[in-house]
Amino acid sequence: DAMVIQNPRYQVTQFGKPVTLSCSQTLNHNVMYWYQQKSSQAPKLLFHYYDKDFNNEADTPDNFQSRRPNTSFCFLDIRSPGLGDAAMYLCATSSSVSSYNEQFFGPGTRLTVL
Amino acid sequence: AQKVTQAQTEISVVEKEDVTLDCVYETRDTTYYLFWYKQPPSGELVFLIRRNSFDEQNEISGRYSWNFQKSTSSFNFTITASQVVDSAVYFCALSEALSNTGKLIFGQGTTLQVKP
Question: Among B23, B39, B66, B81, which is least packed, fewest CB within 10 Å?
Fold first, then answer.
């Protein structure tokens, strides 16, 4: 089945220690999104890639970076995680940036910062 | 400014009851899309329905139905004869054509608990 895969499902890191979250997709979609969802809150878009073009949301902290080495993979790098970065990180894909298109979500990676 | 409000934080019903989840949105865009997603305990958001701003027809899919009213900026979701498997967090979301990013603006979510 075509899908969006996120690894690991659970990640524990220490305050200030860089961490990378991974997302891969078999849908061959052009667009990949990263959302942050804090406990009992709505998912909030951090950034997205349209093919190789990176698009950052205005209020995404510099601490968050992303890489997309190819169509299938996208990484979220948190350079110096703080306690406030503990959250579920959701990766999603879409065939285009049209507001019409539904997004397909992965199961998320739950990040704990000690 | 764009915003989605789901005023009901948690709803608890007994199996077979009908339940309606409310969603109110704000946007200045004339072309937009509204979505409902389900987030079961496993975590991934599952797409349920999409509605565009020019189509106010209500929709029914099995036990699910949606009522879109532009006059009140609402897009409510009703589950008929609820089942335990319907227990999840439900998110209403807005996507504006002008954003040209496909960005979803989510409401806070409504946690639905269906008890046997």
Answer: B81
